[in-house]
Amino acid sequence: MNTLDRFRLDGRTLLITGGSQGLGREMALACADAGADVVLIGRSRQTLDSTAREIEERGSQAYPVVGDVSRPEDCEKLSQSILSQHQIDILINNVGGRRINVPLEEQTLAQWQQILDLNLTSMFLLTRDVGGRLKAEGREGTIINIASISGLVANANIGGISYEVAKAAAIQFTRAAAVQWAKDKIRVNAICPGGFMTEPNQKWAKENPEVIEKFSKMIPIGSYGAPEDIGPLVVYLASNASSYMTGATVVLDGGYTLC
Question: Which of 63, 163, 224, 236 is catalytic?
Answer without folding.
Answer: 163
